Amino acid sequence: MTSFEEAETEETVTCLHLTFYHPCQGEKMMFRCLNFRKREQVRADEAAKFGRDSSVCRYNLVDTRVSRVQFSLHFFRKLHTSEYCFEIKNLSKKTKLTVNQTELGYLNKIDLPWKCVICFGDYQVLAEIQEGESVDYFETHLHLAEAPILQERCLPCLPSLQPVPENGISPSSLLSQGKSPTEIDENEL
User: Fold this and answer.
1) Where is the composition biased (Polar residues) (predicted)?
2) What domains are defined for the chain?
3) Residue 80: left if φ>0, alpha if ψ -120 to 50, beta else—which one?
4) pTM over 0.85, yes/no
């Protein structure tokens, strides 16, 4: 047998991809302490903490509006399965955290969906879990978004997107003239 055949089977590692956005990131540089260049390993029995206190948090956000410890992520295996997941816990007493519109108060926690958006204050974080098999550690891979992850939709500001028939006469223009729209067979034109 060759050394290749005798080598240990390579294990895939669960990776948590986190894409960060803040509207003032260009001028305030609140992400300057985050490593966007490479993946980082985190031991499975450690919590990945995010906040502004560098002595407690592994991932530091340089912003006085962020709590000392904003939130934590815990890696775990679901009971009676081989599935690995993450749990997110809000550790801020002042700021609520939302995960896909589920609001978490202080010390509330939920399982992190495979793909979700985490929001607190003006921060938006897209979290995506890439499955793996390793039980000893997981990896984080941080990314920086140039544009908002969630777009606020101001419906009254948007133009009406009603279909315009081929004859170019919009049903809304007929209604404004006091006429009601009628259906016409295209052969009658």
Assistant:
1) 169-180
2) 13-148 (2.60.200.20)
3) left
4) no
